[in-house]
Amino acid sequence: MNKKRVLLVSEAHYLHSGFGTYSKELLSRLHNTNKYELAEFASYGKYESTGGTPWLFYANLPNDGDAEGQNVYNSTTGHQFGAWRFDKVCLDFKPDIVLCYRDPWMDNWIAGSPSRPYFHWVWMPTVDSAPQRQEWVDTFCKCDAVLAYSEFGGKVLKEQGKEGINYIGCASPGIDPKIYKPLPKGDHRKDMGLDPDCFIVGTVMRNQKRKLFFELMKSFRLFLDRSPPEIAAKTFLYLHTSYPEKSGWDIPDGIMQNKLGGNVLMTYICKSCRQFFPSLFQDALVKCKFCHQVSAVCPTVSFGVSIPDLAKIYNLFDIYVQYAICEGFGMPQVEAAACGVPVAATNYSAMEDVLHFTKGYPIPVRTFFREIETNAERAYPDNEYLADLLVKFFTKSSSERQQEAMKVRQATIKRYDWDKTSKVWEKYIDSYVPSPSQKHWSAPPVFKPIPESVPENLSNEEFLKWICHSVMHEPELLHQQEGIKLYRDLNFGAEISQGVLEPIDRNKIFNIYKSRSNNSNAFEQMRSNQASTVVDPFITEAHQRRAK
Questions:
Q1: Count of Cβ atoms closer than 10 Å to residue 410 Cβ
Q2: Using an 8 Å Cβ cutoff, are 306 and 15 in contact?
Q3: Which of 169, 197, 263, 518 has the most Cβ atoms closer than 10 angstroms to its Cβ?
Q4: Cα 9 from chain centroid?
Q5: Is the pLDDT of residue 51 over 80?
């Protein structure tokens, strides 16, 4: 019996990111079953960074020196997530099933791919708030099956998608309890150059808009002002994050505005010797405590600490705080909890799940607001509540905190287990059978006849029917969100969407959909070997580098 061919589309498995970690953990377990032919299509992936994998590894990044490839890659946002190479990967690998688990705006282009009729699509989008944009919900409905990162996300999908979304369950990320485990805190801090008797409130978050670094510093200032002097004098806020960031928070300004000079620790990594160390925040570039070169910087996704070193950083904390307006999941919370560090977080979105399953501290929402970019409800946590919570936490006895740490770890490793996570995907892959609408890769080609021009004297409604029936040959589009929006835009004379208000007319619409049908026909020619094609070097390299 032939093995099912499974293609995973996400960030490269070797990257120090949430999506990259999920790729590594899921791919390795699916590979170990020996039940599937596996392939990875890796955003931000380069061949020279892998050293060979037991599954096919298709890199999405163009090679260094490939000026033409770099220009195409940078020409539109969707290309960094794989849109420019996906169909070529599918033509080479011919997947039975495609898996993905990124944000809706990262993977929604898959729905319009010419290769879509030939594979079963399972998507686990990062549902970080409610409501989800209607166009995203419509795309979820086009999937063969949908998973969620959290019970919160599953609830949102079921409520908004009704019967249209085939929701099959939750596959939350897991942790490795052998790596993320408690260390003797006093000795560990001493080894890391810190006072073993100090207190540390820590967080590990990317420096971006939805992570509330400035609000966290405000709350920490309140905590210091309300704490007994002997506690305030030895308590630090530890920020494991990047600085500077183009669209991130101004960390030194937050420190200055909240009078936290001498109270904020950061992680630094040396570009010369690659060692990392915690230090009071000084600047974006500091002297390395190991090689003494002025070459230590704050960590980034592409230049971060190893997973074992990240576990060491969590073990410096007494309590972990996830201060965000929303989360699709928030892996650092679970990693910290597995190290026996209690979690305090905004009581909203996927953070609700983590707080429940790790026995954490819910921080009440002070106010909800509707975000203009997503039209979703976002949450601001209560700074006053967090400040008081920290005062109570640090007035507990050492033995009380140690007992709590043990309970937190036990609850965390019971719920967040990579083996259980992988089994959710494995069970579905094994159970699925191709739907009647799924075509076989060897099926005869289907070409769309494409008109040369727009008929005259059509009403807007008649024109859109003609586009759906005679140009796209997909009459169902007319009654989906795409067709409804197109009709509204055409009547108004402009494309209306988030961040877009551009003139639109029939010729522009015709050219867009004509191009889509031309792409479909070109794909069908290549799929059926009716067009001579040159194999792209990235395809050849994928096969050459596969570990034997």
A1: 13
A2: no
A3: 263
A4: 12
A5: no
Instruction: Return the DSSP state at 471.
Output: I
Contact 237, 263 (CB under 8 A): yes
Residue for token pair 């910290």: 336
Token digits for 524?
A: 């069908």
- Collapsing DSSP states into helix, strand and coil, what is residue 434? coil
Identify the residue whose tokens are 């033409």: 68
Find the mean pLDDT for residues 33-57. 92
* Beta-bridge partner residues of 346: 363
Residue type, 134: Q
Compute the distance between CA of residue 389 and CA of residue 220 in angstroms, rounded to an integer. Answer: 11
453-472: average pLDDT: 96
Residues whose CB falls within 8 Å of the CB of residue 90, separated by 6 or more in sequence, listed in order: 7, 98, 113, 115, 118, 119
User: Which domains are assigned to the chain?
Assistant: 4-174+421-431 (3.40.50.11930), 185-415 (3.40.50.2000), 460-527 (no CATH)
Strand partners, 276: 269
Q: How many CA atoms lie within 13 A of 385 on its CB side?
A: 16
CA distances 409 to 309, 321, 359, 416, Å, are 19, 16, 9, 10
| Inter-axis angle of helices 398-415 and 350-358, nearest 10 | 120
Which residue type, as a one-letter code, is found at position 357? F
Element (H, E) at 38: strand 36-43
What letters, b where the CB count within 10 A reaches 16 and e where it falls short, cover 360-388? bbbbebeeeeeeeebebbbbbbbbebbbe
CA distance 342 to 336: 7
3-class secondary structure, 469:
helix
Distance linking the first and last C-alpha atoms of the chain: 22
CA distance linking residue 258 with residue 325, whole number of Å: 21
Angstrom distances, CA of residue 120 to CA of 143, 152, 431, 501: 8, 25, 12, 35
CA distance 300 to 207: 9
Question: Using CA atoms, how far apart are residues 119 and 100, in angstroms rounded to an integer?
Answer: 13
Residue 301, number of CB atoms within 10 A of its CB: 15
CA 346 to chain centroid, in Å, comes to 19
Q: Which two tokens stand for residue 193?
A: 């150059």
User: Model confidence over 502-548: pLDDT tens digits?
Assistant: 999 999 999 999 999 999 999 999 999 887 777 899 999 999 888 65
DSSP 494-541: EEEETTEEEE--HHHHHHHHHHHHHHHHHHHHHHTT-S--PPPHHHHH
- Annotate 159-183 with DSSP letters as a single string: HHHTTSS-EEEE----B-TTTS---
User: Each residue of 108-155: pLDDT tens digit?
Assistant: 999 999 999 999 999 999 999 999 998 899 999 999 999 999 999 999
